[in-house]
């Protein structure tokens, strides 16, 4: 549900049409009728609807609705009607968002391909986001951020200062009112404390087709194993390294003639494409996390 | 809407749960609420819903719903409630179908790859259909039909007997209560009269990535043009050759080292895959024809 | 090099043009000149050449040449000239084969999709092979073999009779002068003894994108992990289960809406395609095994 | 053969190892032996070889060889030996190049996706080229060139000044010692005079899967036709618009839910990928033009 902790102040904003309603509840008859009936009475016009019901034995129901309305709205206003009339009846969890650009923080180390791609996409509007800050544990990519006019914060991490720097990072995220954090080839492991503050709000790109070749140096491992296809995986970060809910994957065919350097080069194109698509899904509030998997509604 | 002419008697069958409701109407507020509200009152449980609204300027709304109900149903019974309560209010066209296997006729000439694939898929249940008859203008593939225990009807076509043989074909289709006709590399052009009797009920596979290389010998044309990818296109048959609504397309990469024979061989795998997927969409009542295009809901 | 043990009598056959020469040796200057110079003097015309040099630090050189010659040839005749003039000078391992159809044994259990596909491809000539026998530990697929007129041998395997049945299988392979064994979804593990008698001559299809989801029930495991792409892997069988040299892989995109049954159904198409391509490479003598990887020349 | 007119001064440079030799001649026995034998005597070590023979009826032979040598080389030096010993004997056309970065001019109009991608790839070394100049008929993309520190030349084109501006462009290309011109979404048609001066040295990206949707507004045309896949095509520019030899193509799947704007957005990723690969092949001297098609050796 990409739920927010109270720490994120934009959660209380006045929203603007079109709106996005994400709903999760136990499955049963009448849910779609109740939600869409409520929205009709509310004066809303449904633009788009996607639902998913899990296997009858689990019995969960998920719905994403886009609707337009001729007035701005706060979550509290919507809740005042929706909660008693619909949500309580069906034991729903729900979130309401809108389509305004989200604020992304990009965390990087030394590789620039995902960074340049995301900054360009945000700048030309192919991703519906703004990037108020790029953060790195190395100074190398400062010029890349500067190319796009984005502030760069250098937070070098050592074993000695890890906790302190993560707190600084967290404060920076709040100060910049960050909606989601993208690890665009960030080579540091984030602590459980940090991760728990940003649940399903941190997107990582891993340079392999998970669960194959998790951990370090996946292209070298893929080369040694002699695979004929390599890939990349974008996932939400959890405390199990490379084990979080997968958002998107993509692959590219390789041959015996490709060296580790070739795989790395070919993989770069796949990584940036995969990460951009995952970020796009997140920005569109299309992702629902269910256990350790995602629905893309 | 894959509508049927009265010629198809199964249109009046008693249907069995789960049901499929396809709806088309001018766009506007309250449609989903009205349809799902009606179904809830009717005692139905929605399994699946897909909708599409065209560009606001056209303003068409399309909906496919799967629902379960604890009783059998005729179209007339459903219409008695749905027509006055919902359909008339929103100026809807709609069809109700169910998930029982459809009856497919396969028309072939001399190439067997699509035929063998479809017969196998129907036999093992990967396509939800039965094949009561294979029809061909040549005798060559009779053994292939026999392998799967399917009757084979040889209807040789010449310029002299074309009308007569098409009438025989039409009668055979009715007699066998055929729901849809699949041209599985059938090398004859069907007449406008025949096509008009089976609107959006005849699926053809063309061995190119349309609109490129329409007409005869597309692999030879693709070879001469030096393309790096070849493809196949499954579409509904209309009276404009290779111009009907496209249902599905697939491609495969080729190189300068591939001869016309290689393209033909590689293309066979793409053709059978593309045709099987298009037939699967049709069997699932997922296809809506809009102008000369399809929606896959 | 797909080398044969003396057990395979066809190794001493008289070969027919066009010929295929596979060469492996330490890398160094002059190899291509020496080989092609020899062939020119020999009266051969090179149709096709592919080479691969490993990283300079390993320093291995691999070459596959197709050549035509206006006369039949035995390996001994070719060796009489090639061995002293070229092979010894460069410390080469080499094999000479030709383009006549190979004899494949297909081993199956209960799933028929790979079996039907391979039998059809061999029958229509899209794979350059004949299938003298289908072997299974179950009787279920006897009708499928019969459809294509291929003898079916039922060799049920239990813990008690495993060794005995494998010996029977080996004898059957020799008796039928089998060139390669294809495990077309054969659900039994072959013993080290058997595998060692057929080195790089047994091709298996595993229904996952290895190294992900090795072992049993890969589609269920893929579903649980929530991957967005599933795949299949064809590899030579070694004594490490699912760890042999990978020949070919292919993938297909899936979504959260796909159940384990859907993955299984979608995967079937990928499995049969992947296995067919791997078999095609093997039949064309295009595969060189290097360590635990393959070159496709 | 990507041959150069004398206008391109770098054709007379001293080359550096590793070298690339491209050969074209009538097919016949002994060619590979003669070329590789010569190179062996010359002291060269072959790194890589790719050949292609056309259908026996045409009888053309093509070869690309990479070789290393412990000394620099001019074309004249190489020709002094190779021409009489090998080339004349087999009636060869040949070119010798090396692996130093080529000098690319990028021509653009208003879309920046291909430009940014190519500039980034050249800057990080994923494309083996330098870009001395970006040229445009509009001023819009000057900031993009500036981001990468590349000079931008604004050459506005009108019907009145077309010839004059093309002459200025040609002079600029010579002055900058440009090796190849990339039309990275350049919306002007170049004159036959200009094109004839840069034969197989101008690469264009067309935003459709040619030969489908040639001409203007291909995404709108693809949307109207209802195709399920859109693509992009990189080709050498000839005087037949969108009809030059195809170098590379790529596609992406779309659905009925994608608007023209969506196709355009999805297509951008395909365009930049396709163009980058085509440029990579050109930079590696891997492309041979044969009639109106290309070989990628």
General description of the model:
The structure is a homotetramer of 297-residue chains. Chain A is an alpha/beta fold. Chain A folds into two domains: 17-98, Alpha-Beta Plaits; 102-296, Formyl transferase, N-terminal domain (Rossmann fold, 3-Layer(aba) Sandwich), CATH 3.40.50.170. Chain A contains eight helices and 15 strands. In chain A, the strands form four sheets. In chain A, strands 9-8-7-10-11-12-13 form a seven-stranded mixed sheet. In chain A, a hairpin with a 2-residue loop joins strand 14 and strand 15 (293-296). In chain A, helix 1 (31-42) runs antiparallel to helix 2 (75-90), helix 3 (113-124) packs parallel to helix 8 and helix 7 packs across helix 8. The radius of gyration of chain A is 20 Å and the shape is globular. Residues 1-9 of chain A have low confidence and may be disordered. At the A-C interface, strand 13 and strand 15 of A face strand 13 and strand 15 of C.
* Helix/strand class of chain A: alpha/beta
Shape of chain A: globular
Assembly of the depicted chains: homotetramer
Approximate helicity band of chain A: 25-40%
Strand content of chain A: 25-35%
Poorly predicted segments of chain A: 1-9
Q: How do the SSEs of chain A run, as a string of H and E?
A: EEHEEEHEEHEHEHEHEHEEHEE
**CATH architecture identity of the largest domain in chain A:** 3-Layer(aba) Sandwich
| Overall tally of domains of chain A | 2
- Overall average pLDDT of chain A: 94
User: Which chain pair shows the most residues in contact?
Assistant: A-C, 32 and 32 residues
How many separate helices of chain A? 8
Report, as a whole number of angstroms, the end-to-end distance of chain A.
11 Å
Arrangement of strands in the largest sheet of chain A: 9-8-7-10-11-12-13
Q: What would the CATH topology of the largest domain in chain A be? A: Rossmann fold
Computed CA radius of gyration of chain A, to the nearest angstrom:
20 Å
Report the major sheet of chain A: 7 strands, mixed
């Amino acid at each position: 549900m990409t739920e927010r902790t109270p720490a994120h102040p934009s959660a209380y904003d006045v929203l603007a049409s079109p709106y996005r309603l994400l709903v999760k509840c136990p499955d049963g008859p009448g849910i779609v009728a109740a939600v869409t009936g409520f929205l009709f009475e509310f004066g809303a016009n449904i633009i788009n609807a996607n639902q998913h019901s899990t296997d009858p034995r689990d019995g969960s129901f998920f719905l994403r609705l886009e609707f337009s309305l001729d007035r701005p709205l706060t979550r509290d206003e919507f809740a005042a009607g929706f909660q008693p009339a619909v949500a309580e009846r069906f034991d729903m969890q729900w979130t309401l968002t809108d389509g305004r650009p989200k604020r992304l923080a990009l965390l990087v180390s030394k590789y620039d391909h995902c960074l340049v791609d995301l900054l360009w996409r945000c700048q030309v509007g192919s991703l519906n986001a703004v990037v108020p800050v790029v953060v790195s544990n190395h100074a190398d990519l400062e010029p890349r951020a500067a190319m796009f006019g984005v502030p760069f914060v250098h937070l070098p991490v050592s074993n000695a200062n890890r906790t302190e720097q993560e707190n600084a990072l967290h404060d920076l995220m709040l100060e910049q009112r960050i909606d989601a954090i993208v690890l665009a080839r960030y080579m540091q492991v984030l602590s459980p404390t940090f991760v728990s503050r940003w649940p399903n709000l941190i997107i990582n790109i891993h340079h392999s087709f998970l669960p194959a070749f998790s951990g370090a140096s996946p292209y070298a491992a893929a080369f040694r194993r002699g695979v004929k296809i390599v890939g990349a995986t974008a996932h939400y970060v959890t405390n199990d390294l490379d084990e979080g809910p997968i958002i998107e994957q993509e692959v590219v065919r390789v041959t015996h003639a490709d060296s580790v350097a070739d795989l790395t080069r070919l993989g770069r194109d796949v990584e940036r494409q995969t990460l951009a698509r995952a970020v796009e899904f997140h920005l569109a509030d299309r992702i629902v996390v269910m256990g350790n998997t995602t629905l893309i509604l």
